[in-house]
TrEMBL record:
Secretion signal, residue range per the UniProt entry: none
Domain of life the protein comes from: Bacteria
Gene3D superfamilies referenced in this protein's UniProt entry, alphabetically: Jelly Rolls
Any Pfam family matching the protein: cNMP_binding
InterPro entries: cAMP-dep_PK_reg_su-like (IPR050503), cNMP-bd_CS (IPR018488), cNMP-bd_dom (IPR000595), cNMP-bd_dom_sf (IPR018490), RmlC-like_jellyroll (IPR014710)
GO cellular component assignments: cAMP-dependent protein kinase complex; cytosol
Source organism per UniProt: Desulfonauticus submarinus
Protein name according to UniProt: Cyclic nucleotide-binding domain-containing protein
Cyclic nucleotide-binding domain span: 9-142
Amino acid sequence: MFDLKKISFFKELSREQEEKIAALLQKIEVEAGVPFIKEGEFGTEMFILISGRVKVVKQMLKPEVAEKIPFLQETEKVLAVLEGKDFPVLGEVALVDSDKRSATIYTLTPCVFLKLSQKNFFHLIQSEPELGLKIVLNIAKNLAFRLRKANDDVIKLTTALALVLHKKNNLKEEV
């Protein structure tokens, strides 16, 4: 059995709780160069990368907008490159809602993931509420971290835009 204590979501679990989670996880092997999770598709699983490397890619424009800008060369941005040695958790939002994926995950090398389905997660919450709560709290902590980072990024982007617009207006005034 894989040592789940290596994964931040499961560090605080007892041996018994770890065994219950392990019974719900499915090991998935994926070849290199595959869009493993696709932005915009509906998903109901969370994945933990335990081996290999992936990149997280986000569309910068909605497709209907991008197609109206023919000179645009790139419409997506690489947000991160993640490695299995860090055991990143991907798609955890899908455990609590069945909405569209917010990014695409491409495998850069052959990868091994552990998959937890929403169905198994809901079963766990019903049968083991204390254990389910621990995982929900870890999901909330992870999402809070990402929200804070997104807020920081928005501030940086709006500040940069304000500086560019200010400089542009100053140049117009000088002419």
